[in-house]
Each structure stands twice: as C-alpha cells, then as structure tokens.
Amino acid sequence: MATKYDRIAADLRKKIKSGGFKPGEQMPAETVLRDEYGVSLVTMRRALDQLAAEGLIEKRHGHGTFVRVPRQRVRRTTERYQWEKDRVLCSEEERRRTGATEHDTGLEMADLRFTAQYRTVEADEEAAKVFGVPVGSKLLERIYRTRSATENAPFGIGRSLLRHDIVAANPKLLDSSNEPWPGGTQHQLSTVGVELDRIVDEVTARPPSAEEAEELGIDAGVAVLVLRKISIDTAGRVVEVADVVMAGDRTELAYTTRLRPWTDAERMALGMSGESNE
User: Fold this and answer.
1) Which site in 9, 195, 215, 235 is 20 to 30 Å from 112, CA atoms measured?
2) Per-residue model confidence (pLDDT) at position 124
3) Closest listed residue to residue 98, CA positions, set 187, 200, 216, 231
4) What was the pLDDT predicted at 49?
5) Same domain assignment for residues 42 and 96
6) Are 161 and 242 in contact, with CB atoms under 8 Å apart?
7) Which residues, 6+ apart, have CB-to-CB distance to 276 below 8 Å?
C-alpha cells in the first residue's frame, strides 16, 4: 500500500517529467510543499528524499532544492561485445570513427572527454584467484574516465586489469599515451594474438562511497551499479578483469538472452506442432 510520501513523490515526479518543474528550476521550499500537501515536514522530506535518490532533484545546502538537469543516459547491452569484436577486423580509419562509449550513448567522439592512467601492479589474492595466477603476478592496471564535454562528471569510474605477461608482447599496450586506442581492448589484445571467446558480466548494486558520489556527481541516496567484466580468450584464459562503477540515475543495463529452440521431437512430446517457426 502506498504511503503518504510515496503518493507525494509520485505527484512531484509527474510534475517534473511533464515540465511543471523545469530542469534547473528551484522548487518551492519544504515548508511551502508541506503546507500544500497538508503533511508533516518529516513526511515531505521523505518524499523529496525519494526523488533525490532517483536523481530527479538535488538539495543544495543553504540554497534549497532544485530539479536536476537530465544527465547523459548510458545504455549498455551485451551486443556491444560482438560489435567490438567485429570492429577488430575493420581498418584503423574505420575504428577511429567511433568507440564503445559512443555506441552506448549515441554521442560523437568530438562530444567526449577521455583520460587513461596506466601502472603495473601485483595481483592480490582476489585478482590472482580470478586470473588463475600466483599472488604477486604482474598485472597492468588501467584507470579510465570518459565524460560528455557538456558535463563535469564521468559516465563511470573504470578500472581494468590485464595480464602483464600477455600484453607486454606489444610495448605499445603498456603506454597510456596511445589511448584512446582505436578499436578498444579487443583490438589491443588482437595485436598480441588474443581472441576473446566470451565475456562474463557480474552486476551488483550498492550505495556509493563518499568519493564515488562526489566524482559521479550524485546524491548519497542514489545507488551505483558495479559491473565486473571478465574477458576469457579462446584458450580459456582470463585475460582482463574490469570493474566499472556507474551512477544508477543515468545508467541502463539491457541484456538479451538467446534461447535454444526446441527440436521437432521435443515440440511433438509437448503436443505442439512438429514444425518450428524458424
């Protein structure tokens, strides 16, 4: 059953999305809204907290509550991985035209600002277990940030680990000045003879740390999505483990699972037509 603050939040949400409150506009004071809806200040604040957690409004200390200007949306699908693999076979000119972030946002390369930092690290117990290597093995750590040129906050906070013994075969892969690399990680790996067989995504949600909330430009009530991407090559080796922390108020993860069709015999056993629809 909806509570009073749920109903108030729903009404305010509708007004925001319909343009009753415009992006960047200051909303009425909490006390004014309290009187308008005829509820206690506590109830009013809980309703506003809901909207803040959804990224629709922001509370500026000493200034009031404002409707958030919509952030650039990011829609990440599993199809992106095959798209990246197909691009490995393209010419460098073709690969330079667009990248995975442009694929997820619909933006052009000129609309983006990108930074990358590289360093060599030693595998701790967790990383060693995922990669299947001894603790202390050398890994290449890459820290990525990409943002819209019109925004200050990045789309996500990215950290990628690669097996150093594999990528060191091409010294260019150890140099961050070669970023952004045309064709991304899959093309980088192809230069050392690595073809990816599959990628495993593991997604969790949690509250952001104070540092994450500040960097992503979100209120503490907005959850973050943590995507761990594990890339496995055709030899069965884990070659990359990447963790991306993304703001829940502007990120959409869309997964399509292809299902094996029943055989004619299986369909007949179920009393269905023996002819599939394919």
Assistant:
1) 195
2) 98
3) 187
4) 86
5) no
6) yes
7) 261, 262, 264, 267
Last residue of a domain, one of 67, 83, 98: 67
Say if 276 falls within a structural domain.
Answer: no
Q: Are residues 146 and 240 in the same domain?
A: yes
Q: Report how far apart, in Å, the C-alpha atoms of 220 and of each of 9, 56, 141, 152, 204 are.
A: 18, 13, 28, 18, 17
Residue 236 one-letter amino acid: G
The pair of three-digit structure tokens given for residue 120, joined into one six-digit string:
């060599």
25, 132: one domain: no
What number of other Cβ atoms are within 10 A of residue 214's Cβ?
12
Stretches where the chain sits below pLDDT 70 are 1, 220, 274-278
Q: pLDDT at position 54, please? A: 77
3-state helix, strand, coil in the chain (%, to 5): 35, 30, 35
User: Could you list the residue range(s) of the whole structural domain that residue 38 is in?
Assistant: 4-67
Predicted TM-score of the model (pTM): 0.80
pLDDT score recorded for residue 220: 66
Q: For 195, phi and psi rounded to 5 degrees?
A: -115, 130
